[in-house]
Amidohydrolase family protein (Streptodolium elevatio), 560 residues
Amino acid sequence: MTADRTADLVITGGTVVDGTGAAPYAADVAVTDGRISAIGQGLTGRQTLDAIGHIVAPGFIDIHTHYDAQVFWDPALTPSCFHGVTTVVAGNCGFSIAPTRPEHHGVIARTLENVEDMDVATLEAGIPWDFSDFPGYLDSVERRGVGLNYTAYIGHTALRLYVMGMDAYERAATAPEIAEMGEVLRTSLRAGAAGFATSFAKTHRGIDGKPVPSRLADRAEIDALLAVVREERRGVVEFTPGEQLGIDDLYEIQPDIGVPFTYTALMTTPTGAHERLVQLNRDGWAKGAQVWPQVSPRPLTFSFTLAEPFTLNSNPVFGELMAGGADERRAAYADPAFRERALAAWQAEGAFLVPRWGTYTVDESSAHPGLLGRPLTDIAAERGTDPFHTLLDLALDEPGLDLRMRCVLANDDVDALLGILAEENCTLGLSDAGAHVGQLCDAPQATDFLGKWVRERDLMPVERAVRKLTGVQADILGLTDRGYLRPGYWADVVVFDPATVAPGPIRRVRDFPADGERLTADQPTGIRHVLVNGHAIQIDGTRTANAGLPGQVVRVPIRN
């Protein structure tokens, strides 16, 4: 593109941070026909956006979202759109909603209910289900329009259900089934999927509390699907590691597959396990393995009710209750034998996500409003019992077991997190935007990173921070015309004030189909202008009246 004519729009007077990590510099940015047409001094355009005192950067790319269903009823993709995010990747952890067959729509909804805290009634009311294969899903999103640029992984759980039916929840695949899965995966990659995503995590339990289908895949199936990715040379492979394939295995496998791997998540823990993973990553990269651990600048904090205690369901004794209803759960909570079995499971060798009772506080209680905000350990001490028994006793006092607790699972060691966030070959991820909407809202990841860590704690220069949010993510995905401010690239741009940028408050609203409830964060500070493909969706901190749906379905190309 040339700059010899008046541009459609010029962002003037700002400091350009272009996504490469290069030093900031003063320049105007011109946009014509949706793309950046020039970067320089004294540019003119039919519309001007002032950026004096602000940074002009590429739009942020969120590589770990679960907007697969929400994109249909909320194509603006709130609240990500308020935080300078211009491109999102859905389908993480293997939980895409395509490919699918009509008889499995309910199964997918119930799976998402258990693993991602999505309301079944909302999903039933909000998903059009006018697609079956993965290319058809992308086409469906494209027909309806989307406010941000959108791409998605094809998920392993959906893929198994599509090929194997309900047997996907029960057994390993046969050789013909593996071959069919491979061809479906190949077609999906060629249609532009962001890559292939899978999960082997113990926390991921689907219908009736059973392990999600991807957890039943054997090594022959995994190797065959990865071989398709190697042959197609497209996108990324995203893992939530577990028993079938551990984190160490990823560094052994990746060089042969060729495309980058990423996994969730590298977080600080009281056990110090993160220290080994940091060293593993350094050693792996030194040997040529391109594995990107996803890191988050936010403590992993959940607000959950005892009617659906997501954070406790990794305990197999709690997992047994997922197939039942409220009456079964209430009876179990009152049963001393259940309590003792649950405690024993947490005390067993290799127990996973053992609660850190010291992080538990009361978030909501109709029966005990005076306890709001109080630590569970303090309440237990006053009652002369332990935190676990106190927790269940409080829940039983609620008519619907709807005692809501807030707890921290990991990532709250500030000193250790400073080191992890600064690691060169770790990438920002795990916002989980679109998932766990009643329990957490980490969509403000980018504004939190820039405010709390870059400005307040001086973690790194702003140019390096912007690169982590933009160019690094584009390179991992293999995008060739996004993630940087360069002439000819799509004009995905965020203009922000480095002195004030912050995530703002989180609030609980009911604005989803079927009166669905969620947490949202729609009032960040310091995000001034946002452009998606050259179209301003936010000007001077306010969403534009004609924001429309300027996003594109991004079809990830073959790698060179």
Remarks:
- The chain has a mean pLDDT of 96.
- Residues 175-190 form the longest helix (16 residues).
- The two ends are 23 Å apart (CA to CA).
- The longest strand covers residues 7-16.
